[in-house]
Amino acid sequence: MSEQFSVDERAGLENQIDQWRAWVLRRQAITPDDAAELEDNLRGQVADLRAGGLDDDEAFLVAVRRMGNLDDVSREFAREHSERLWKQLVLVPEAPAEADRRWRDLGVLIGLAVGAGIAVKSLLALGDDEAFGLNVAFAVLPFLAAYFAWSRRLTGRVAATLVGMTAAVAVAVNLYPFVVTDGSPGMTYVLTATHLPVLLWLLLGVAYTGGAWRDHARRMDFVRFTGELVIYFALIALGGGLLMGLLFGVFGVVDIEIEPFVQDWLMPFAVPGAFLVAAWLVEAKKSVVENMAPVLTRVFTPLTLVLLVAAFVALLAGGPLTAVDRNLLILMDAILLLVLALLLYSISARDPLSPGRPFDWLQLALVVAAFAVDVVALTAMVARIADAGWTANKTAALGLNLVLLVHLLGTGWLLWQFLRRRGTFDAVERWQTRYLPVYAAWAAVVVLAFPPLFSFA
Amino acid sequence: MGARVHIDKDLVAASATPLVLGILAEGDLHGYAILKRVAELSGGRMQWTDGMLYPLLHRLERNGLVSAEWGVSEAGRKRKHYALTTSGREALMERQAQWDVVGDALRQVWNTLRGPEAAGAWA
User: Fold this and answer.
1) What is the DSSP letter of A320?
2) pTM, whole model, 2 decimals?
3) Which domain covers residue B21, as residue numbers?
């Protein structure tokens, strides 16, 4: 599409401008608003040139030339608006070689997905539930990381660091002598097994950013990627579940037992495979889901706000704070994490340049509600700890709540500043990406330091 | 109006921000008016590629140095107006201090280049 813009000289000036606008809008990095701005410039230039004695056609041609090479201009727009850059795979329109590359990417990815399937299957073959819980993330995520390392041409140094860190964590958690009482593992095991995927996921982020993990825009891309991956994976799982149901139905009618096959062979390959394919789809079809993200966040933000208010009431209605049910506190943590994920996702999908809208106020309300719930939950936790002493679970929950509290506080404050026109939305975005390593650090503490600290109980 | 001088890409990039901020300090303007002012200030010797101004304006807007508002032009079309914000004014002061230093140093270099006899002729 880098052919020169040609003018139909028989058309009038208005027609020529119409054609030019359509041509400009073919670039994904340029929005209709940008085009309107450029058009205003073009019209101003044409008017001045005509006043200087040129005729319509000449003035139009000179004005178009002064606008500059549109490929360069659109690349500049894409660079400035990285959330738009996300929409397109390449900065300039796709060359045929790009399409070939996409198929090659898919080939590599399918190979890696089979590898992940084999790893999961071998892990299952050990028949050790505890080992499976600790290692399943190690069986899947490195394959996805390998895909990013390959597609982003990760440098040897970064790749070696990532492999080294992952291997160190894998060795440590597998050597930890977790205490097993009556066949059920202790608290620290459960904490390690649940926090480990978070830590590995954020390490994966380093591979996703191609090593440029300090870069704000790349980190935001990773947040977007994570959000879209969840959506794609859910869609594939839904479809897969439907097919599986039909399969069971058909074989049930002809009286053939296929459950062992499904459980032993199909699932260990299908689930990691679906996960990797979902990741590839997000990469390859960015713009498709891009249209869904704003819609989804608009639907779920008000609903989650209602949920939070209900949770707040439930917390306060549950009697004195020291007596709040333990399960309720765990549920609160889950809700708060969901809120944070939703918040992060909607912030990543928002155009940072658009002015404050009613939806932003709704988002602020969501942050305030989450903050209130967090404060109450924290109070209840501190009361319980004062009552019954520290345990690994309570410490982990307390720590997570504190991490969330600071995140919410910062987001709420910056959103408030933005809505009062004292700050920019960019500041809100940067706070999110700057805070991401805190989650990695906290997950690392729980995974690596908690088991020895609480004597592997 | 003087003849156009080709200005190196890096120099354009470095000077564009203080120029735009400085022009907006005189009053709110839309994009094309900023370009016209640049041409006017340089006596027509400096001309930017028109399209490149807008990504720059958007960057300044994102960083909170300028604010933008959609309005309507005399012809009744959509037009975006830009204004300097308080932090934009601060950034401009900072840039000015930096450019003063660079300008001072450069002036002295030009003077030595011109040589003592030229300097004498000037006196």
Assistant:
1) S
2) 0.71
3) 9-113
